[in-house]
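Supplementary Methods. Inverse-folding protocol.

Structures were first reduced to a discrete structure-token string of length 267. This string, shown here, constituted the complete conditioning input.
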């Protein structure tokens, strides 16, 4: 496995990737959810490229950029175990050599709702860095987790609308046995908060079965958890909530329920 940290090193290593090339983009702090993405890419493609970059553009001024977990050596070990061929791990200066870009990708109306409403500018930052990494790594296929479903939907739309020759594929959310969706931010949770966080999955399951009000009733049983939103959109029931000082998101499919495109409440 090769590791590139500069554009020059990436350009030198990229020709060594043969056949269909898959990319998995991450901010590091890899866990079993990332492992599922990498193993799916390894099974499907001829070559696998992993990017590790904590993107400052998608963090708001009061968010956790500085304390976001960075576990680079452990990430490389996981990458090796999954058969990754090339890791691109640029610094901020390598990704944005002229400083933070003035021109950014506009996510459109869907990008201003839910996560976009709660975190203004978030999807501008996500789509901008994904577009840049697409240009730098030149993959044939890209894998993203369905846990970040709104993000996945917007990346697919960007690839379509910008005529990018990349097949963007979603991989199902990986969960703990008790239902908690895997996330790098789970590391922030105390044992008590870890238990409280299970309400996200319970609320989603209740909302899928009985509607948004049923899900909000489930949230009400754990008043320490502060709900941001619980809505039905794009064939999914999506939620975000604060557990202590940690903001978590999750979703479940509702395609078979015939729920309208966007309904529900922001408590």
């Amino acid at each position: 496995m090769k590791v590139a940290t500069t554009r020059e090193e990436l350009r030198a290593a990229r020709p060594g990737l043969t056949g269909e090339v898959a990319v998995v983009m991450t901010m590091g702090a890899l866990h079993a959810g990332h492992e599922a993405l990498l193993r799916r890419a390894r099974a499907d493609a001829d070559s696998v490229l992993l990017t590790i970059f904590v993107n400052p553009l998608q963090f708001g001024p009061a968010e956790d950029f500085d304390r976001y977990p960075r576990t680079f050596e452990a990430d490389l070990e996981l990458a090796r175990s999954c058969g990754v061929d090339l890791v691109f791990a640029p610094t901020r200066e390598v990704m944005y050599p002229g400083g933070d870009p003035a021109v950014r990708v506009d996510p459109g109306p869907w990008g201003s709702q839910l996560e976009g409403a709660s975190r203004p500018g978030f999807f501008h930052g996500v789509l901008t860095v994904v577009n840049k990494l697409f240009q730098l790594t030149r993959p044939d296929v890209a894998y993203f987790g369905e846990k970040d479903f709104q993000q996945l939907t917007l990346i697919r739309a960007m690839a379509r609308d910008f005529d990018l020759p990349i097949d963007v594929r979603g991989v199902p959310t990986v969960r703990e046995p008790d239902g908690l969706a895997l996330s790098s931010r789970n590391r922030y949770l105390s044992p008590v908060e870890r238990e409280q966080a299970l309400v996200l999955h319970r609320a989603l399951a209740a909302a899928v079965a009985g509607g948004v009000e049923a899900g909000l009733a489930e949230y009400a049983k754990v008043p320490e958890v502060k709900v941001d939103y619980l809505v039905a959109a794009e064939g999914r029931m999506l939620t975000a909530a604060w557990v202590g000082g940690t903001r978590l998101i999750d979703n479940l499919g509702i395609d078979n329920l015939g729920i309208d495109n966007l309904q529900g409440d922001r408590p």
